[in-house]
Structures are given as structure tokens and as C-alpha cells.
Amino acid sequence: MHMTHHITTRMNQRGIRKDLIDLTLDLGDIDGDKIVLSSKIIDKEMSDLQRRLKMLSDARKKGGIVLVADGDHLITAYHKNSFNAKLAKNS
Predict the structure, then answer these.
(1) CA 46 vs CA 18, 40, 54: distances in Å
(2) Each residue of 57-79: pLDDT tens digit?
(3) Is-contact 77 66, C-beta < 8 A?
């Protein structure tokens, strides 16, 4: 989206960085001729990110997760660092 001289001036005056403009464009709700990034939207996004960070942390503690699939069927799952090729070969 093209940025006018007016918005660039106002952004500088109000301490609004370009990355916050991009964030508002990505997440904001359209309200007529406005795009609004409200506290409600921000809180939900932050909550979603915190939940995702927790899941990533859990997966990291396990050394990663491996899924084995056959077509669209999930067959098994295991911790990435738990596979032992020697044990698998002897089976």
C-alpha cells in the first residue's frame, strides 16, 4: 500500500514505526475507511503467541517430535532424540 507524505509525517510525530503499520495491516479489523488494531485483538494475538511458545518449549524439551505418516494416515509419533538405529536394525 502506498504511504503518503502525510502519514509519514504523522508516524514520525507520533512515534509509530513502519513495522507497527504492517502489523496493523495484517491483524487489524476494517471499520469503514479505517483499519483498527484494538487492545482486544492485541491481547488475543499475544495469548495465542504465548500458547505457541509453551508448545514449542515442550517440544524442545523432548528434543523435537517426529511423526511417521503413510499417505494421509498418521502411524506413530516419538521424541526426535529417542530413535536408536542399532535397536531398530536388531528388531
Answers:
(1) 20, 10, 12
(2) 999 999 999 999 999 999 999 99
(3) yes
Q: Which of 86, 83, 87 is nearest to 63 (CA)?
A: 83
Q: Are 36 and 29 in contact (CB under 8 A)?
A: yes
pLDDT the model gives residue 18? 97
Owner of C-alpha cell 487489524:
28
Q: Please list the residues that pair with 34 across neighbouring strands.
A: 31
Whether residue 62 contacts residue 75, with contact meaning beta carbons closer than 8 Å, is answered with no
- Give the cell for residue 90: 536388531
Q: What is the pLDDT of residue 42?
A: 98
**51-60, long-range: CB < 8 A, 24+ apart:** none
Enumerate residue ranges in the chain where pLDDT < 50.
Answer: none
